[in-house]
């Protein structure tokens, strides 16, 4: 994530798309435990959220949305806590994106009227290649009605809004060492970042 948050880097639109596609592919190789709610990750996710509103490129917007959904599916509880530590403007846009994706997923699943697949937030699954489909709502033997699933969605929104905010200083707090469990996001993105920057020139 270090390349994304590096203030000295000013990636152009082509590089942004390349970075986002790399993060998407990387998330498909990770275990849920590899995604941590660190200050550096929060700052990187904040940057990705801003890219979902990139006015000059629909490709950047779509790629950023796919990455957010992939990270949500990778580790839903951790991503939800991370989102809760961000400013409300970031929360609102991302929550709306995820809710729209969940609703689209329910429609595309072909569920009978009044019936839905299991709650999507209890068993996160890795995002599949191709982005927004197949949905994160895998069909299962358990059937819930529409009222239950939207109650669950409302619960997520409330949890995000009620989660205590981290201080703004913590968002920009540098990592004190290069150690840490799980996937080394920084090393992978720094290596990729150099190649992506060359691509954009």
Written overview of the protein:
Helix 3 runs antiparallel to helix 4, helix 4 (58-74) packs across helix 5 and helix 4 (58-74) packs across helix 6. The relative contact order is 0.20. The protein has nine helices and two strands. The longest helix is centred in the middle third of the chain and has 21 residues, at 88-108. It has helices at residues 2-5, 13-27, 39-51, 58-74, 76-84, 88-108, 146-162, 168-171, 185-200, and strands at 115-116, 144-145. The chain has one domain (2-200): Leucine-rich Repeat Variant. The two termini are 21 Å apart. Strands 1-2 form a two-stranded antiparallel ribbon. By secondary structure, it is an all-alpha fold. The radius of gyration is 17 Å and the shape is globular. The model is unreliable at 111-147, 163-169 and 176-183 (pLDDT under 50). This is CLIP-associating protein 1-B-like isoform X2. Residues 105-132 are annotated as: Disordered. One of its GO terms (biological process) is establishment of mitotic spindle localization. InterPro entries: ARM-like, ARM-type_fold. One of its GO terms (cellular component) is basal cortex.
């Amino acid at each position: 994530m270090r390349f994304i948050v590096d203030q000295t880097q000013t990636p152009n639109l082509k590089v942004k798309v390349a970075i986002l596609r790399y993060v998407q592919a990387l998330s498909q190789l990770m275990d849920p435990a590899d995604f941590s709610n660190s200050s550096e990750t929060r700052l990187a996710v904040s940057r990705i959220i801003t890219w979902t509103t990139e006015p000059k490129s629909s490709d950047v917007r779509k790629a950023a949305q796919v990455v957010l959904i992939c990270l949500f599916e990778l580790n839903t509880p951790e991503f939800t806590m991370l989102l809760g530590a961000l400013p409300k403007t970031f929360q609102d846009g991302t929550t709306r994106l995820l809710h729209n994706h969940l609703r689209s997923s329910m429609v595309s699943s072909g569920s009978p009227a009044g019936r839905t697949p299991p709650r999507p937030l209890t068993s996160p699954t890795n995002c599949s290649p191709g982005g927004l489909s197949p949905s994160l709502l895998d069909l299962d033997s358990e059937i819930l009605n529409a009222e239950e699933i939207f109650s669950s969605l409302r619960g997520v929104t409330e949890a995000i809004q009620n989660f205590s905010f981290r201080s703004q200083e913590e968002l920009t707090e540098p990592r004190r060492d290069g150690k840490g469990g799980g996937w080394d996001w920084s090393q992978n993105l720094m290596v990729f970042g150099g190649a992506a920057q060359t691509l954009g020139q």
